[in-house]
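Design review, sub-item: ligand-bound model
Attendees: FS, YL, KQ
YL presented the inputs for the zinc ion complex:
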Amino acid sequence: MKALCWHGKGDIRCDTVPDPRIEDARDIILKVTSCAICGSDLHLMDGQMPTMEAGDVLGHEFMGEVVEVGPGFTKFKKGDRVVVPFNINCGECRQCRLGNWSVCERSNRNGEMAAAQFGYPTAGLFGYSHLTGGYAGGQAEYVRVPMADVAPMLAPEGVDDESLLFLTDILPTGWQGAEHCEIKGGE
Ligand SMILES: [Zn+2]
Ligand SMILES: [Zn+2]
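KQ shared the predicted structure:
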């Protein structure tokens, strides 16, 4: 498949890379129908995020159509349109149960590395360095979505991609910022 890959500061290329495969029963594979470039992707392009490796597939804001599911997976089926939040969540750990999705204790394969860098482990994130798990992102034709039975959402019928895509990060991130600032309206 084709994917946007990081190769160094200011060097992002459209490469041919191996297609993603199901690795776990909780995985789905999406054919990406829409993706966005985040402001925080610029930090990667500018070389400000450590532990990026040449060939890493970028992109944490994407949605698509299910083309394959893990054995026994029931939440989605082939052909479903799915919107994928950028945090990967196990749904079972203490932080997930508290609703602290961004610090899931199980989804980041390199949690110890993240804890050394940030003081605490973050959740696994798509396309955002090896500190956040080294998961391939969705600026690609296909993407593997791990733990897809927790955070990903079924797209309602009749609602187009552009109306849903920003649920992956930008809209809820802005909402959370407004909540933290206790904005009530009129300020
Ligand atoms: Zn983003
Ligand atoms: Zn968790």
